[in-house]
């Protein structure tokens, strides 16, 4: 992470791949890192397999930064909606899927991430939703602190032994507490004392209406030390990224740009932005192209005249529409390349304007 210009957006490569594109595509649009998921990689192909093949960087042929999320988010995304998939215990999380049981303890979470050779490892945490009650949030904080301490002990023990990644990887803690400021402070204070290199905002960052939980995000950013990375986990809407950069966050990840590309929704900067006139990211600064719309059927223009990605420099909107309409995989690949380039361009602008926001 030392050579990553900030702020930065890392697309999600949950299972070791950013869907529809390869490592060369990612490099071509300026992606600096990928977020992968510890839990999913434990199930397929398995930590031992990844380690035997030289770690994730070699396995995926990706030699820029890799962040491995701990798997704690699966507490929220899987168990919250499907309690039969597992349970949370004092010593870890048990997942049951397809007749198999996977145990994710702080120790196993760290050992797996160390085997992966990740650049940034995330301590195991107990993820919550902003609407969860105080009792649930307090339990999540107590659990996250306990698991954070256990994660740090395993990480430090590996470093003392000169194990895989020792001296190169960083370990981040995740601050939980929902919308309760007192709990956020309790969690942050405890984790800071443990010596984590950076911190993530834990929990779902949107309210029940889909709006960014700006007040608690800003408060949590203030609790994080200024000499480490502040990671707004799961924040991905362009306008939400801008809001969080103003708060002090400098690392982001989300499935939004790649998922929406596969659903034919392309991000394009507005006309003023394209002319580099009056660039103001505090106002609406982008729009969408729904590439299947009939208006693009005979349009010889690129998706965006500003964009320098493969899709925009070599192909027309009409051809993009044709590819998508016949279901050819090239359409999804080009759409994904374009949306990721939109995000890396946004990061470039934010780095230029960061002190003016």
Explain the overall architecture.
With 357 residues, this protein is of the alpha/beta class. It is 43% helix and 17% strand. It has helices at 23-28, 38-43, 47-52, 56-60, 73-79, 106-116, 134-160, 181-194, 214-223, 238-247, 256-262, 271-274, 310-314, 317-325, 329-353; strands at residues 8-11, 33-37, 65-69, 86-89, 92-97, 100-104, 120-122, 170-175, 198-201, 229-232, 251-254, 265-269, 286-290. An 8-stranded parallel beta sheet has the order 1-11-10-9-8-7-3-2. Helix 10 links the parallel strand 10 (229-232) and strand 11. Helix 6 crosses helix 7, helix 8 packs parallel to helix 9 (214-223) and helix 11 runs antiparallel to helix 15. The radius of gyration is 21 Å and the shape is globular. The two termini are 24 Å apart.
Report mean pLDDT, rounded to a whole number. 92
Number of helices: 15
- Distance N to C terminus: 24 Å
**Major β-sheet strand ordering:** 1-11-10-9-8-7-3-2
Assembly annotation: single chain
Shape: globular
Strand content: 15-25%
Radius of gyration from CA coordinates: 21 Å
Number of strands: 13
Which characteristics define this entry?
357 residues, alpha/beta, three-stranded antiparallel sheet, eight-stranded parallel sheet, 15 helices
């Amino acid at each position: 992470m030392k050579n990553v210009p900030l702020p930065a957006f890392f697309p999600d490569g949950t299972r070791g791949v950013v869907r529809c594109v390869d490592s060369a595509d990612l490099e071509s649009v300026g992606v600096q890192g990928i977020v992968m998921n510890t839990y999913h990689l434990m199930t397929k192909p398995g930590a031992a397999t990844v380690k035997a093949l030289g770690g994730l960087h070699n396995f995926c042929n990706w030699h820029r930064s890799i962040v491995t999320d701990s798997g704690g988010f699966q507490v929220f995304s899987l168990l919250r909606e499907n309690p039969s998939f597992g349970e949370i215990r004092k010593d870890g999380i048990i997942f049951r899927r397809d007749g198999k049981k996977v145990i994710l303890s702080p120790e196993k979470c760290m050992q797996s991430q160390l085997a992966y050779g990740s650049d940034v490892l995330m301590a195991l945490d107990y993820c919550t939703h902003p609407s969860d009650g105080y009792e649930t949030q307090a339990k999540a904080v107590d659990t996250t602190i306990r698991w954070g301490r256990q994660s740090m002990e395993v990480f430090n023990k590996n470093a003392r032994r000169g194990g895989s990644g020792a001296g190169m990887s960083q370990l981040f803690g995740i601050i939980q507490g929902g919308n309760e400021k007192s709990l956020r402070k309790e969690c942050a204070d405890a984790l800071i004392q443990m010596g984590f290199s950076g911190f993530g905002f834990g929990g779902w960052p949107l309210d029940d209406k889909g709006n960014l939980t700006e007040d608690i995000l800003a408060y949590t950013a203030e609790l994080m030390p200024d000499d480490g990375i502040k990671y707004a986990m799961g924040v991905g809407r362009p306008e939400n990224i801008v809001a969080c950069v103003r708060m002090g966050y400098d690392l982001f990840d989300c499935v939004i740009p790649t998922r929406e590309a596969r659903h034919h929704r392309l991000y394009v900067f507005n006309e003023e932005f394209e002319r580099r006139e009056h660039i103001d990211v505090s106002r609406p600064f982008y729009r969408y192209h729904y590439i299947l719309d009939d208006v693009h059927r005979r349009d010889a223009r690129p998706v965006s005249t500003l964009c320098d990605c493969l899709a925009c420099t070599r192909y027309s909107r009409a051809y993009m529409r044709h590819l998508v309409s016949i279901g050819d995989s090239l359409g999804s690949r080009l759409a994904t390349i374009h949306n990721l380039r939109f995000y890396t361009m946004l990061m470039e602008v934010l780095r230029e304007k960061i002190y003016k926001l």
